[in-house]
Design brief:
Helix content: 25-40%
Bound molecules: S-adenosylmethionine
Strand order of the largest sheet: 3-2-1-4-7-9-8
Number of strands: 9
Oligomer: single chain
């Protein structure tokens, strides 16, 4: 359900910087013709990509209309969308630094949109992966960032993955999971 409250734009944090560094290396050594960043927030990942590949190949989307307004001067395409609702294309690469934490009812609603993956923490990631399957080109890849606080059993059952980055943060470990269209998508 989309929310009518004014949502904060997620400011780049340790997870964003870790993902940007990984993406930078990945794009330097892999040929990508189309890239979608879901939940782009400040646009850190799309901006990182646009220094390496043509902005014409990049689409950045977010459920938060403020995030999309904030990116309107950027050279890449932006779309306000709840996951893939407004997205019809397929891509070689899809990234999502997901809201991955289990619900903390004490957290204000306006920041929960960026941080909270649902009651357990894995709900948005699962929805994302189910929808992403039909938006990934042959040999395409998805990189999804979650945390050690996110339950992984349902995600793994849905679509086995490889952990490509693991980093200790304050209260958790941050993980980037790689999903491939051709090899491990059942
Ligand atoms: C952890 S923040 C990451 C922001 C940015 N990509 C970064 O790395 O700093 C998660 C982002 O996902 C967005 N988001 C949450 N639910 C979404 C949904 N259902 N569809 C699209 N974006 C969503 C939030 O608005 C937020 O910008």
């Amino acid at each position: 359900m989309e929310q009518n409250i004014l949502m904060e734009i997620y400011q780049p944090a340790e997870d964003s910087l870790m993902f940007a560094e990984f993406l930078n290396q990945y794009l330097k050594s892999n040929k990508i013709d189309s890239y979608l960043d879901i939940g782009t927030g400040s646009g850190i990942l799309a901006k990182t990509a646009s220094k390496i590949i043509s902005p014409k190949k990049i689409t950045a989307s977010d459920i938060n209309p403020e995030a999309i307004i904030n990116l309107k001067q950027q050279p890449f395409k932006t779309i306000k969308s709840n996951l893939f609702k407004q997205i019809s294309n397929s891509f070689d690469l899809i990234t999502f630094n997901a809201p991955y934490l289990p619900l903390n009812p004490e957290e204000p609603k306006d920041s929960q949109v960026a941080t909270t993956g649902g009651k357990r923490g894995d709900e948005i990631s699962i929805k994302f992966l189910k929808q992403a399957k039909s938006h990934l080109n042959k040999n395409g890849k998805i990189f999804l960032l979650i945390s050690s606080l996110t339950p992984q059993n349902k995600i793994k059952k849905l679509w086995p993955y490889t952990i490509v980055v693991k980093k200790k943060a304050f209260m958790e470990e941050l993980l980037i999971l790689e999903f491939q269209q051709n090899t491990n998508n059942p």
